[in-house]
Amino acid sequence: MEAREIQAEISACAAILTACSDLRALPEGKRVHGLVMRESLLQDERPDESLLENIVIQMYLRCGCTDLALDVFDRMKDQNVVAWTSLISAFTFAGHFGDAMVLFRKMLLSGVSPDRITFTSILLKWSGRERNLDEGKRVHSHIMQTGYEGDRMVMNLVVEMYGKCGDVEQAGNVFDSIQDPNVFSWTIIIAAYAQNGHCMEVLRLLSRMNQAGVKPDGYTFTTVLGACTAVGALEEAKILHAATISSTGLDRDAAVGTALINLYGKCGALEEAFGVFVQIDNKDIVSWSSMIAAFAQSGQAKSAIQLLMLMDLEGVRPNNVTFVNVLEAVTSLKAFQYGKEIHARIVQAGYSDDVCLTSALVKMYCNWGWVETARSIFESSRERDVVSWSSMIAGYSQNESPARALSLFREMEVDGVQPNSVTFVSAIDACAGVGALRRGTQLHERVRCLGLDKDVPVATALVNLYGKCGRLEEAEAVFLGMKKKNLLTWTSIAMAYGQNGHGSRSLKLLHGMELQGMKPDGIVFVAILVSCNYAGQMSKGLHYYNLMTQDFGIAPAVEHCGCMVDILGRAGKLEAAEQLINTMKFESSLAWMMLLTACKAHNDTARAARAAEKIFQLEPKNATPYVLLSSVFCAAGSWEAAEETRRRMDGRGVQRLLGRSSIEIGDRVHEFVAASDVLPHHLVGEIFAALEKLGREMQGAGYVPDATAVRLRDVEEGGKENAVPYHSEMLALGLGIISTPAGTPLRITKNLRMCSDCHIATKFVSKLVHRRISVRDGRRHHHFENGVCSCGDYW
């Protein structure tokens, strides 16, 4: 073949192969490569041979056939820098960073010197996730050796590499060595500091950039605003917005405007966020979603939903991120019908298998109490990540199904999904809910081994666990070992002290908070008032209530008023308690419930009836006020009124809550439900026998059943058998006695308030069997020992 013809054929094949590469036309590319091989276009030593081989390699790489590209490369006589760089670039862009570095080292060993394109290919997609700082330093060293330290583009990427690996000091040193840094150079060094949480240095660099006469662009501002958002630097961002961004008009740009919305939204400055949103010229889906998120996360759920409606009118189609943000708003509002409509839209839009949306839907339905619906969505999801598992576990824990939460946690681990800190918090909360101390301590050891025990939410959950299980020393040890604490942490330890009868220690915490520069919020004062209540300290309760409202300027919420009513009621100040409720600016079923409970303790039937009627109106499906009012009437001997209350309850279709109690023995949590037709436990015979034996011993010791409780029978949660109350906590107690060595302390958790007869009986049992028995019911902790309860018989 003539040289001219060969040259023409090589050029034609190169053009066709380039087209196949651009179109990802692998079959056609393979045929052309076959033609090249048959015509022996790659067998003679010609100047165009390497060029054609490089084009073949690039065609295979762009079509995803790495093995075929490597095969061509291995057959090359002249493995030049272009071929090496092509392979390195392909592996880097495909995410195979380790393979790319192996090739880079082989290239150096073969004696081929990398050029600026080689270095660019390696650094452009540097994997910061691998934190491969040592490897990056070696690449930097080769750049210096080959004389590319003066190449601004290459050095920009070196700065970026150090930033991704967390070495901002070295990133700064390299940046300072760049001659005449341009806007990209400045933005990259700003991004390096922003990614590593150095907000103030980011702002200083922006100032230096302006002083150097380099004009920031939109990407520069979005990077700076991202740094401010991460640390909540609202005032600094406001100054930047007013002094610089507004003057350039970039706040009308969708990307910069969205960054401002995210910043203002996170800092709760909704007026500023919406002002920016309105000014954006061409709002994209990201802008709309960010504004919806800002409303939802700041508690403005109705505004978030209204904005979605406006978005629909504007013809902007929501994406998965939009729906996640809207679901957050719907969840907090408990807008059932609208939530179901959004769910239907998600399905219609084809997002049923989106993991983030699955988690959001599970969270929404669990928040509404529709746990089975949430589980159905969870089970139907094709892909489940740790977030969706955690959402479902948290849902069970929050809906009084801690045993199911722990079961699902075990199922998750069997499925090979590794729990994260959020999952551990939900699992630890579930242990607290069911009183599973042994399981909880095992989780404590696991998070300690994983280094998560210093994580504030995890440590706070542990404080809560130990507090609810009556282990104050362990709760205190976790609390004192925390380097950082938030308000919820302080609240948890205060609750732990208060619920376990150590109110004075709880009250001292307020002083400790102030010494650490923390201002208590309303939730902290709830814990303090609860402590005063459990300690029977009315005067201190009034003092801290006034301190909260007058000195700290915290407006009383439902929980504070409920605590104060309970405190006054416990002291017998029923008139004052009712007056407080009548002066409240809001209706509160909780406050009326506290008054009703106090009326039961002080036998005030008329006031009890008024309180109950109020609760019937506010919570028509709540069984508790019917039960309490019946108890009041029974205690007063008004049996007909008690029966009438029960008939009203049944006639209105109000379902009684079943009493559930659990006890942890060994590695297993046993749960009992009162009034079950069949008791699903293999030791049921032994349990009944133990309780009957105890009943006879108690009668001999002077136990007399509470006539009111016996007469009530199953009004509360289940019937009575013989002399021993067979409510759920007594069944758990029976199992504990027959399943553990003599003298072993027993811990029982119950979802409802203990009835008076069970309370009396448990005091007798603690003395007869010489055990410390702890029962955490729906009201407080009871520590029974030697015939005495820590609550002082008021709960």
UniProtKB/TrEMBL annotation:
Residues 702-795 form the DYW domain. Keywords: Repeat. This is DYW domain-containing protein. Belongs to the PPR family. PCMP-E subfamily. One of its GO terms (biological process) is system development. InterPro entries: DYW_dom (IPR032867), E_motif (IPR046848), PPR_At4g14850-like_plant (IPR046960), PPR_rpt (IPR002885), TPR-like_helical_dom_sf (IPR011990). PANTHER family: OS07G0578800 PROTEIN-RELATED, OS08G0340900 PROTEIN. PPR repeats lie at residues 80-114, 182-216, 284-318, 385-419, 455-489. GO terms for molecular function: RNA binding; zinc ion binding. The keyword NADP does not apply. The keyword GTP-binding does not apply. Pfam families: DYW_deaminase, E_motif, PPR, PPR_2. One of its GO terms (cellular component) is mitochondrion.
